[in-house]
Design goal:
This protein has 2 domains: 152 residues, Aspartate Aminotransferase, domain 1 (Alpha-Beta Complex); 249 residues, Type I PLP-dependent aspartate aminotransferase-like (Major domain) (Aspartate Aminotransferase, domain 2, 3-Layer(aba) Sandwich). It contains 15 helices and 17 strands. It is of the alpha/beta class. The strands form 5 sheets. The protein has a 7-stranded mixed sheet with strand order 4-10-9-8-7-5-6, with helices on both faces. Strands 13-14-17-16 form a 4-stranded antiparallel sheet, with helices on one face. A two-stranded antiparallel ribbon has the order 1-2.
Length: 420
């Protein structure tokens, strides 16, 4: 019993227009408060195309069963689809071996997995974890917890007023106490694309491994973990047109095999006796219990969808939208862009003189515009810039020029209501 693919295949044949691609996303076809939905909160979570929705429905309708070890037909179907999803992930990010791709609940769990597994094995009292100033809380708090437990220290790669990392003193920061460098590929708060390859190369000159938070990069550009040279790379499915509750940690085999699992249970073992336990091979060593089967399969389908469009084409489209939005908002009196790095992904943080970002977000919602307002789980970034929060519009390839027009008109409405 196979899922019907005729209609899906037709949608993927040839180079379709952006309007045709947008029509693949049912949620975008609605009005919010009598206005067309302008969904500009993609950095928090992207939307799912019909292909992914259909694949999830098909799994639950025709394949639902637990994976691995089952000899009956449904288990074999589910296992085949689940394992194929891991293979798709490996190909998508250029991983040399699908077994190095660990399914997690998302980027946060992937980073925590490394903090526990790598930290237990390699971090001791007096050691340092070097973290960039642009990190999401999920790439700060686990390292603070680890360092508190171990008597180690978190040190910070600084940033400038534009939201760019300052690497002038990186070689001095990479001293003999540093056991791991942690940096995001793209800042979720400001959109800065960090020079991760340079950071990795300089860290590796001192044989220091590097973890990269790729949550905001994988959905927007082609990523090859081997080309980057990272040791760990984490990302989430729900930011790349897939379901929530699924993510991936890619790690080099040499590290994964030395790390201890931080969760115990089914599937992560080879044998259990009262005398002790023998752990399974990777990736299963780190995947205790029944996994998010449907979500993993949905992620595989999302990868097929993105591949059909082409990540290079997606990157070009989003760069065009970012340039357009940046020019439009920069020209507005009283609107200040926050984060003006030379190399940026499709995130625009901004504020308006005298208006709290939460008020901006609420008024824009009344006009059908979905943005994010707050510190974006990046309070140290806000503290460095001397502000409590920003309004953030984040773009995806399925956004339209009309969405930007709607955002600009909405900002004028905000200014008019507050008389600024």
């Amino acid at each position: 019993m196979e899922m019907p693919v005729g209609e899906k295949k037709m949608r993927r044949e040839g180079k379709r227009s952006w309007d045709e691609i947008r029509n693949d996303f049912p949620v975008l076809q609605q009005n919010i408060r009598e206005h067309p939905l302008a969904y500009l909160d993609n950095a928090a979570s992207s939307q799912m195309p019909q292909d992914v929705i259909d694949r999830l429905v098909w799994y639950h309708s025709a394949e639902h069963s637990n994976v691995h070890r089952g000899v009956h037909t449904l288990s074999q179907r589910a296992t085949r689809a689940y394992d194929q999803a891991r293979e798709k992930v490996a190909q998508f990010i250029g991983a040399p071996d699908p077994k190095e791709c660990i399914f997690t609940s998302g980027t946060t769990e992937g980073i925590n997995l490394v903090a526990h597994g790598f930290g237990r094995a390699f971090v001791d009292e007096g050691d340092t974890i070097l973290v960039s100033a642009l990190e999401h809380h999920s790439n700060i708090v686990p390292w603070q917890m680890l360092c508190e437990e171990k008597g180690a220290t978190v040190e910070v790669i600084p940033m400038n007023d534009r939201g760019e990392l300052v690497l002038d003193d990186l070689d001095e920061l990479l001293d003999g106490s540093v056991k791991l460098v942690c940096v995001n590929h793209v800042s979720n708060a400001l959109g800065t694309v960090n020079p991760v390859k340079e950071i990795i190369d300089r860290a590796h000159q001192r044989e220091i491994p590097v973890l990269v938070d790729g949550a905001q990069a994988v959905p927007h550009m082609a990523v090859d973990v081997q080309e980057l040279g990272a040791d760990f790379y984490a990302f989430s499915g729900h930011k790349m047109c897939g379901p929530t509750g699924i993510g991936v940690l890619w790690g080099r085999r040499k590290w994964l095999e030395k790390m201890q699992p931080y969760q115990g249970g089914g599937d992560m073992i080879l044998s259990v006796t009262w005398e002790g336990t023998t752990y399974n091979d990777i990736p299963f060593k780190f995947e205790a219990g029944t996994p998010s089967i449907a979500a993993a399969i949905g992620l595989g389908e999302a990868i097929d969808y993105l591949d059909a469009i082409g990540m290079d084409r997606i990157a070009r489209r989003e760069a065009e939208l970012l340039d357009m939005a940046t020019q439009r908002l920069s020209a507005m009196e009283g609107v200040r862009l926050v984060g003006t790095a030379e190399d940026k992904a499709s995130v625009i943080s901004f504020d308006i003189d005298g208006i709290h970002p939460h008020d901006i977000g609420t008024i824009l919602d009344n006009e059908g515009i979905a943005i994010r307002a707050g510190h974006h789980c990046a309070q140290p970034v806000m503290d460095r810039l001397g502000i409590p929060a920003t309004a953030r519009a984040s773009l995806a390839f399925y956004n339209r020029e009309l969405d930007i027009d709607q955002l600009v008109a909405g900002i004028y409405s905000v200014k008019e209501i507050f008389g600024v």
